[in-house]
Structure formats: C-alpha cells, structure tokens
Specification:
Number of helices: 8
Shape: elongated
Number of strands: 11
Distance between the termini: 26 Å
Helix content: 40-55%
Radius of gyration: 19 Å
Strand content: 15-25%
Structural class: alpha/beta
Length: about 230
C-alpha cells in the first residue's frame, strides 16, 4: 500500500518511514504542505499521514484543499497540539483521525490500519484460489508456506490486486519501488523470477506470466487465454 508521509522534521520523518517500510508500506516523503500537494497531484495514495505544523502550508490547509478537490483519501493527522479545539479543527477540516506527538509506533500503525479499514482498503490477507498472502507474517500460503521479503510482499500484493491485468515493467517499478529508486528493469525481472519460483514452491494454482516486451500478470497456470 502506498502512503504519503508529510512531516517537516526530517529525523522523525525518516524514523517513521523506516517503520512503515518494515511493515510493508510503500512510503513517499514530503517535507512541507506544498510538496505534499504536489505529490497528490501526481500520484494516488492509499492513505496520508500529515503533520500539522509544516512550512508553506500547514496540515489543516492541506486537508481542506484535498477535500475541496473531492479527494477522499484517508488522512491521519500528526500534531504536537494537544488542545481539544485543535483536534476538533483537524477533524472538521476532513481528517479521519489524529495522533498527538510524542506517540508510540504501535499506536501509529493501529490508527493507520483503522482508517484504512474504514475506507475499505486494508486487508490482513489477500486470497485468490488456493493461495493466500498473509500481511501480518510476510507469508505466501498455498499447499505449503514460504516467507517473503518486504519487496517480494509488495510485488505480490500489487499483482494480486491486479490479477489478470497485464502490467508493464515501468508501471511495476513505479508502484512497487519508490519513484526515485535506482531500480532497473533487470532488478524487476529478478524479483518476478524469484516470486514465480516461490509460487511454484508452495504449490499455488497461480504463476506470473510474461508477454515479451509488454509486461507481466498474475494468472492461473492452466488459463490458456492468459
């Protein structure tokens, strides 16, 4: 899942990013409100974690602007402001929840999962046919079970969410790897190859099929039309 983290304290932003990536989220970092809006102009996110006290545009202004556009992406506000009026203002602007600094990582992750569930985007597991992708344990499960790396998990989740859709290498790079990551086509191919082997290893009914020069898709092994 793709998360926009808008936080101007770089040390905190980097720490939260590491935690989110460890928990299999794909994170884009913005360091002020204007930069956050620029990301939202270019990309679609599953959720936004938004600091209030940011330069150029504060978090309240960002939420107001995206809601005015009709963007209903779930928003979790991070704020050092503990007054009840400030919390009410954040919710009235259109935020889904708030978390007061300093906060515990477990609570941040729990509140993120909660707003994703309310918007119908969060799943503890994805299942297709005899195959399950377990979010909590990084596992790919069919007749047998194997553990996935963070990148393998994100790639498998993206393929499952786009089952039978032909995805270009460039699109996979954009969605699974950070937009500025120095990922090359051969790296994507290597991860596809490893994941295909793991699907075979666990006895999945599915495999990753390739159309030379076009892209890849997750489909049933015996599906002759794919």
């Amino acid at each position: 899942m793709k998360i926009l983290l808008a936080e101007d304290e770089r040390d905190l932003s980097n720490a939260v990013t590491r935690v989110l990536k460890f928990n299999k989220y794909d994170v884009f970092q913005a360091f002020d409100g204007v930069e956050a809006l620029e990301f939202l102009d270019s990309y679609t996110f599953d959720a936004i974690i938004l600091d209030v006290m940011m330069p150029r545009k504060n978090g309240f202004e960002v939420v107001k602007e995206i809601r005015k556009r009709g963007d209903q992406t779930p928003v979790l506000i991070l704020t050092a402001l503990s007054e009840i009026d400030d919390k009410v203002q954040g919710l009235d602007c259109g935020a889904d929840d708030y978390l007061t600094k300093p906060f515990q990582v477990k609570e941040l992750l729990a509140r993120l999962r909660a707003i994703l569930r309310r918007h119908g985007d969060y799943k503890e597991a994805y299942s297709i046919g005899n195959t399950t992708l377990d979010h909590d344990n990084f596992q790919l499960i069919a007749k047998d079970t194997t553990r996935l790396t963070n990148t393998e998990y994100r790639l498998m989740e993206y393929l499952i969410r786009n089952q039978n859709v032909l995805l270009s290498t460039e699109k996979i790079m954009e969605e699974v790897w950070d937009f500025d990551n120095e990922c090359e086509i051969n790296v994507v191919w290597a991860y596809i190859s490893n994941l295909r082997k793991k699907l075979e290893q666990v006895g999945s009914e599915y495999t990753i099929k390739a159309l030379r020069g076009v892209g890849y898709k997750l489909a049933k092994k015996d599906d002759k039309d794919n």
